[in-house]
Specification:
Shape: globular
Order of helices and strands: EEEHEEEEHEHEHEHEHEHEHEHE
Number of helices: 9
Strand content: 25-35%
Structural class: alpha/beta
Largest sheet: 7 strands, mixed
Oligomer: single chain
Length: 336
């Protein structure tokens, strides 16, 4: 069995992760037991949710055990198999770890994929993976958009947010995006088709509230929230009657003590609703979502960006791009 480099979680981060929280080690790969197969990981999805899995508890998944590889969705090729239904050379996708090789079991989370069905196999980590399905089901099912709605998207230049804005336009809505910096804001309007973009940098809550009001003078019917903090509070101050808020993420609060929304009373004032969304609830319908996303992409209605960094040794720096906002599209790490 081959030697295996593994990116391990060695201690639980206190606030923003630092390099010393992790260790890259090389270990022998265990022999396969009956019903198991060995995956050579080629690509891994780096997502903000991974930060929550590093903490002790209070999440929707068990915490990553100390001394284990950082958990991530990976795609790779079966190198050896002692499991029915998985053959050498077959491409698979599953929730494994940041490591060269992962051992999986038949009947688990790892499933075969067909690289010939997509322009790039990495698309299984973006538009046809959890990112695309979060945007599709989170927006269409949780936010319940109606033609003519004004949709406010925070983290709009990110992998999920950029797709949500485009889905809003496809469904006859007006899309307003919030992003950090002039380059990202230009990308929202020029590349993704948002109707307006707001640069949150150097703005306090009052300034953000005003900027949203100017970009959405008729108010906001839907908020697709990825960031939280003062950005969510500013959005809540611009709600229309019976508005819907889809809570996808709170990335501004993952590395700090949670601030919490201060303007929730606006939900009462406007008889609005807020609902958390988790893509795991829709796994059985991924085929439906992927078919529609593929149809719109083929018609030129969806633009998908992927930011691919290379090398398991760069896992920490690549992961931290998510919090610095220096990634341009879905953050993917090339391992093989």
């Amino acid at each position: 069995m081959p030697q295996n480099r593994r990116f391990l979680l060695q201690r639980r981060p206190d606030g923003e992760p630092v390099a010393e929280d992790f260790e890259l080690v090389t270990e022998p790969t265990p022999e396969l037991a009956q019903g198991q197969f060995l995956i050579r990981n080629h690509y891994a999805s780096l997502d903000p949710a991974i930060r929550g899995w590093m903490d002790e508890g209070g999440n929707y998944m068990p915490p990553i055990p100390l001394g284990d590889p950082v958990r991530a969705t990976t795609i790779g090729v079966v190198e050896e198999s002692r499991a029915d239904g998985f053959e050498q050379g077959q491409w698979v996708m599953g929730l494994n770890g940041l490591e060269d090789y992962s051992i999986a079991e038949a009947g688990g989370f790892t499933q075969p994929i067909d690289p010939d069905m997509v322009p790039s196999v990495t698309n299984y980590l973006s538009i046809f993976g959890a990112v695309g399905m979060t945007a599709y089901f989170g927006f269409l099912e949780v936010c319940e958009p109606k033609e003519g709605d004004t949709v406010l998207v925070s983290g709009a230049a990110g992998a999920v947010g950029s797709l949500v804005g485009q889905l809003a336009r496809i469904h006859g809505c007006r899309a307003v995006g919030i992003a950090g910096g002039p380059e990202k804001c230009a990308r929202l309007t020029q590349k993704y088709g948002f109707d307006a973009a707001i640069d949150y940098k150097s703005k306090d809550e009052a300034a953000l509230t005003k900027a949203i009001a100017e970009a959405a003078p008729d108010g906001v019917d839907v908020i697709f929230e990825n960031v939280g903090g003062i950005i969510l509070d500013a959005g809540l101050m611009n709600l229309n009657l019976y508005a819907r808020v889809g809570l996808c993420g709170l990335i501004s609060e993952y590395n700090t003590d949670p601030r919490g929304a201060r303007n929730l009373w606006q939900l009462i004032v406007n008889r609005a609703s807020i609902r958390g969304l988790l893509v795991a609830d829709y796994v059985e319908r991924f085929g439906e979502g992927a078919a529609k996303m593929g149809e719109w992409a083929a018609a030129g209605k969806l633009t998908v960006d992927e930011h691919v960094d290379e090398g398991l040794e760069n896992a920490f720096d690549s992961f931290m791009r998510l919090f610095a906002g220096t990634n341009d599209g879905k953050m993917i790490l090339k391992i093989a």
